[in-house]
Design a protein that fits this description.
This protein is α+β, with helices and mostly antiparallel strands. The protein has three helices and six strands. The strands form two sheets. The protein has a four-stranded antiparallel beta sheet with strand order 1-2-3-6, with no helix packed on it. A two-stranded antiparallel ribbon has the order 4-5. The longest helix is centred in the last third of the chain and has 21 residues. 0% of the residues are buried.
Length: 107
């Protein structure tokens, strides 16, 4: 098994190389359980050939509002389920609600 090397950059950004992939993440995006590492990365960059790039062009889709909605909803649900101070979660959820209301009024 290949040795896992994790490097830290400024601002707490971590990265590791796995095969042809460069994985960038923060400490809160990793979890270990029973000898398995799970990373929910900020980004993954994979070196690929011209032929591989051509194949992937068939699957690429533009980012749409519904994708961001789903991502935002997941993030909010994750905050709600977080095992932390209820007062702090409530404060952040109320602040998000206010900010969303302000954005709605701007559009």
């Amino acid at each position: 098994m290949e040795q896992l090397n994790v490097f830290q950059e400024h601002g707490g950004v971590l990265y590791t190389k796995a095969g042809r992939a460069l994985i960038t993440f923060f400490g809160y995006q990793i979890d270990t359980k029973e000898g398995r590492l799970t990373i929910r990365p900020t980004s993954v960059e994979v070196d690929m050939t011209v032929e591989e790039e051509r194949v992937l062009q068939n699957y690429m889709q533009p980012l749409e509002a519904k994708h961001l909605y789903s991502k935002a909803r997941s993030a909010i649900n994750e905050m709600v389920l977080l095992d932390t101070n209820k007062t702090e979660k409530t404060l952040f959820l109320k602040k998000l609600n206010e900010e969303i209301g302000a954005l709605i009024n701007e559009t």
